[in-house]
Amino acid sequence: MRITRLTAAAGALVLAMTAAACGGDDSGSGGEKKNFPAGSTMQKLNDAKKLRVGTKFDQPGFGLKGLSGKPEGFDVEIAKMIAKQLGIAEGNIEYTETPSTVREQVLQQDKVDIVVATYTINDKRKEVIDFAGPYYIAGQAIMVKKDDTSITGPDSFKDGTKKVCSVTNSTPATNIEKYLKDKAKQLVLFDIYQKCVDALKGGQVDAVTTDNVILTGFIATNKDQFKLAGSTFTEEPYGIGVKKGDKDFRNFINDTLEASFKDGSYTKAWKDTAGKYDPNDPKIPTVDRY
Length: 290
Ligand code: GLU
Prior knowledge:
This protein is α/β, with parallel strands linked by helices.
């Protein structure tokens, strides 16, 4: 009897130690062993205990790498939610800086598992990758120096005198073209938005155009230097890029998003990040399970 009780106690202790070693509560180094369909991306990632995430490193509120050495922002929080559902500890997320122009490429070349990077869902991109989401609806806008009164919206570029900066292979770079008289002279393109912000500061360009929420982050972190000129003039639904054809993984991410919309973790993630620069809670979008 005594031996049996001792054995049971020892067994319980071993179980507890095993759970701790595996980080069953997700606070340890590894993560949590989960059972997903055999052969699924979810199972492979859970087995590997690692999630490779492509995101931005220069966009305040969405993905900004600061002193902590890890990017921070709303996109990063979305990636963390997905990692958690996969049973992967936060510390096991591997972030890769992913400027707009390489987003499809890094997925096609299997350099990352997901891209969460202020990434507009559109048909052209869907030819080579797939999107879960949307998880947020942004809109294109224009940022100018605070004392500028000459630019009031995209129509202000039509006379051909003003220069505007955006990022290569971004939707705003394409959308602004129809408002320009002389594209070669007026449109300046860089790989990341921070370079556009520097060009605006230095007077090499008159404006920066991209999504409102990206610009809001730059306005808030460059005190009293910039403002928005006019309001948004496009819709930019943000999706999570995944490899083309992986419908199960896409569904899994969509389930994760929908659960976060319901349990409040989505709104909390927003408030802790981009919401610091934007007083309005985001309108909860409807995911598109195409
Ligand atoms: N959402 C737009 C896009 O996907 C602009 C933001 C960005 O370049 O990351 O192209």
